[in-house]
Design goal:
The protein is 1% helix and 41% strand. With 294 residues, it is mainly β. The strands form six sheets. The protein has a nine-stranded antiparallel β-sheet with strand order 7-8-9-10-24-20-19-14-17, with no helix packed on it. Strands 4, 12, 13, 18, 21 and 22 form a six-stranded antiparallel β-sheet that branches. A hairpin with a 3-residue loop joins strand 1 (5-9) and strand 2.
Amino acid sequence: MTDDTHTIRSDGLTATIKAHGAEMCSLRDRGGTEFIWQAGPAWPRHAPLLFPIVGRLANDEFRHRGKIYRVTQHGFARDSRFAWVARSESSCSLVLEDSEATRTLYPFAFRLTATYAIDDAGLDLSLAVVNTGGETLPVSLGGHPAFNWPLQAGVPKESYALTFTNEEPSPIRRVEGGLLLAETDPSPVRGKLLPLSESLFSNDAVILDPVNSRAVRYAARNDAGPWLEMSWRGFRELGVWSKPSGAPFLCIEPWRGYASPAGFAGEFSDKPGLMHIAPGAEEQRTFRSEEGKT
């Protein structure tokens, strides 16, 4: 245990979480298989938390009560140091609260708590946002975990697929210049199966808005080797992303919110996709990763 990181363990899994961004930077099974992308030149992050926005704002700015505020893509939580609230062998909680520094970027009072809990089969992440101020809190929240792709060295990336619990026939959304396009694309999901390939991300992320399923399995299509299943509660959208130029990771991202629509120039509180949390109220969202081998 250090001030910078904390490792939680079960008989089957080990996870390490950083105070910086409350970000998980490792998730290993008993055999030593690492599921989390270990950062690097292709992308310098592991599994950042997205708060108080998901995606990008036009010009990285928003307007609130006649003032302009600057918040860069996915918000500032991922670059903020959280305070440890509790740490044990199998769980830990971290908190980020508004401060003079955050209010220069985002003029709202909040408390964001991230709680990780591990068991033999998987890892739960619970996110809670409390409005500690006196006005409605307009906010988005999301996860951005990056998993190794392939999960097993030497297996072709195109051998992998995502299998959803429900069919996903609805058109998908895309972004251009970081902003949400009004036009939609036909779903690349074939029934419940989304075959993975680098070309899938040639136009950036695949955004399911809304996502019908509440879980998805990431595995080789022959079910050989390591696999991962992610489930979520309270999230409406799901982003699937990798670098358009190709990179050895795959992000499976539960979202409550999305980038500003191209052309949107209204008040921040009117931006589509936001939660609006009343003073004193709390919103909770959770997702779980289960890992195994076949």
